[in-house]
Amino acid sequence: MDQGLPSGVTVAVRVRPLTKSEKKNNPQSLVQVFNEHLLTFDSKDLETNDNRGGLRRRPKNVTMRFDKVFDQNSTSLQLFDQTTKHLVDEVLMGYNCTCFAYGATGAGKTFTMIGNAESPGVMVLTMQQLFNKIRDDPSTEYQVRVSYLEIYNETLRDLLVQNSTALVIRDTEGRDVIISGLSYRVPTTAEEVLAWLEEGNTRRSQSSTEANSQSSRSHAILQVIVEKKVISSGTSVSYQTGKFSLVDLAGSERAAQMRNTGQRLVEGANINKSLLALGNCITALAGMRRNAENGVSRAGYVPFRGSKLTRLLKDSLSGNCKTVMIANVSPSFSSYEDTWNTLQYSYRAKNITMNVFKNEKQVAVQVSQYKDMLVDLQEENKKLKQLIVCAEAQAIERVNAQEMNNIQVFNSQIQQKLDHYTPYLSQIESINQNQRHYVDLIKKKELQLIEMKANLAHEQLIIVCAEEIEEIKEALRQLESQLLSLSMNALKEEDAIRTLELSETFKLRVNKAIAEASLVSLKALLERIRNSIHIRRLEVELEMTRIKLEVSNYNANNATNHPPRAVVSPPIFKLPVKTPLRLHNTNVFSPTENTLRASKKLKTDTQITSPPIQKTKTTPTRRSSQTPPLPKPLPQGHPTRPSPKSDPMQIIQKKI
């Protein structure tokens, strides 16, 4: 073990930016940063027109030197690289390290230690750096343990446990401090630690105050213990244990300025009590160093037992620990006293010195002991292998041939069921695709109908199209009902298969033949539906072509004859008469269905013809103000005015 090396507290000051409200009240900065070590508080160059207590304010104009000073434009990553990053290496070497943020409410302590997604804080960056170092050293064995607690109203609570009870601080014989009942978790990655950190922050005590919308009402301590096993020359083993404490302190506040009442007032009193005790300890420790430098042998008293916080930070301030103190200050004149007190305590903390040594334990191991251990492990391995072989043999004997046969039969039945239902799935998916196609077609028809209503005054033509759309919808509904019946048939087939599993071999063969015949029938039915859909699609395309031709001829007639003329009705076209399809294997359908499918080919009886447009003579000198009358409604039974049928197949075939 080391004899101990003198080490002081590294003090860094971070000045946060002014908020919008602070800039509105006074845009001047109370703290001016000269370089990375010097700052000036309340410079004489600042305006002194504001009065306090009716008296003209006299600037303090104090220049202070710290180990590191970060201005308003600095980032958390820059602060981590220059203050805390090297502590990760110290912890891996077996030293104790502490980093804590000190300052008033709203000075930016929680942002510095925890941060957010865009700017992670010191705690997050430290965990990432720690596990990166461990990953880069695979030859060394590490074990990491993590705990997270808070001090709220002088009560310790475990933030990693739901509804944690109060924890107790105990002193060991070596004057170390332990926390009875505190839980530890063993992470393997930095992401796990960050997830636990977020989990603990959800349980941390926070509330809104005058200075901060999310003010921390407790002190939070994240403690990371790293155990490292080092083997030297094969004859000795050393265990190094480093402890890293990351502390986010609650901010000091004035009750009158914060306007706290009730529970907030009690919380503020306890926070100020613990921070006052911490300040007294810092003052006492700094005084002990001054006495030593002045040759005074009197030992000073440090009141570490003044609060739970100082008891936990005793080792960080006066024991075996390398400590970094980050003082967060506000440059606003509204935080004048708080900023001045923070800078004073931070300046005193620079005078604290400690003796730091490695936490290392040497364990001598002889080579002969390793050989004996190796022989014992090999013998134990052989015994375990023999036990495994015996256990496997006994397990195989317990399973007889009949049980294996039953398992094979059951597996074959399951496979048959899977093979049987696989074609059904593809068929149902095909029907669903056709159904979606018809739905899209109906939507297009509806859009076309709306356009025709807006651009044409031909109400009879609109009515005909609407009736055709309704007929298509009705046919689609009946197709959906057929799909439902197919699904019901599939369910019935499943029940039949379950019954067949319990039957004898002969019944299985008979039912299999019946199922194959049913499958052939279903395939024929699906073929019929596919052909009917194809026929309907051709019919709709032909009908839309006819309608577009009528409209174009009608518009051309109106556009070419400007003088008044007699109204000519739009041409009416007849659909070609087509014979229905005949499907093979008609014996699986009813007589009515076989009659509807009597033919295989579509024959065109008539061609689409357009009667010539009749023009009337007009007088060029006189123009009639009367608008052309609308065409007469089409008579019932006209080829372009279909009548609804009850059978969907007749609706599809009537245009052919």
From TrEMBL:
GO cellular component: microtubule
Superkingdom field: Eukaryota
InterPro entries: Kinesin-like_fam (IPR027640), Kinesin_motor_CS (IPR019821), Kinesin_motor_dom (IPR001752), Kinesin_motor_dom_sf (IPR036961), P-loop_NTPase (IPR027417)
Biased composition (Low complexity): 614-627
Record Gene3D superfamilies: Kinesin motor domain
One Gene Ontology biological process: microtubule-based movement
Positions of the UniProt region annotated as Disordered: 588-656
Binding site for ATP: G103, A104, T105, G106, A107, G108, K109, T110
Keywords: ATP-binding, Coiled coil, Microtubule, Motor protein, Nucleotide-binding, Transport
Stretches assigned to coiled coil: 367-394, 462-489
SMART domains per UniProt: KISc
Molecular function per GO: ATP binding; microtubule binding; microtubule motor activity
Biased amino acid composition, Polar residues: 588-597
Pfam families, alphabetized: Kinesin (PF00225)
Family the entry assigns: Belongs to the TRAFAC class myosin-kinesin ATPase superfamily. Kinesin family.
Name of the protein this chain belongs to: Kinesin-like protein
